[in-house]
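Recap from last week: sequence in, structure out.
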Amino acid sequence: MPRASRPGAPNVADFSVVVPVKGTPAGKSRLVGPFHAELAAAIALDTVSAALGAASVLVVTSDSVAADFQALGAGVIADPGGGLQAAIAAGLSAVQGPVAVLLGDLPSLAAEELVDALALAERHPLSFVPDAEGTGTSMVAMLGRRGQTAFGVDSRAAHAALGYVELALPVASGLRRDVDTLEQLLALPLDRLGPRTAALRARL
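Predicted structure tokens:
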């Protein structure tokens, strides 16, 4: 369950979470190996499923996979095209109040880990969570004004330069263990993975 907030601060339950998902066979193009398309879809669905245990979720994706996320209980809007930043901008413009942008490649994410991160995010107007490698970003959060995002290469340094405060989460947190490659997926304990991803991982 979401934890209570500090007096006067947004409650974790007030957060919306925007998840951009590339709903095409090109999604997660570095995840080379068996079941590529199925794995990419499973990872995104497990990420969104976990996030729904912590907050309301809006997925920005193509019409071809929208129904899969709607079946989980997420809201969905169409990806406008133009890449990741354009998808994020579309999601941010569709929600009000405190918002987090979560990348859809976190198959070992647990809802409680996202609740903990959002509780920490309540303390800062702009904040972010770095990935386990220490160079990228898996989540940013905004309490009021919408800040510019800089997901991509060296985004940890880029978000810090934009005024985002880094949230201190354990490196083993599922919120920091993003999966871009098959090697990263295989490095995750099977029992930490969401059910869809785990079922496919077990067949590798």
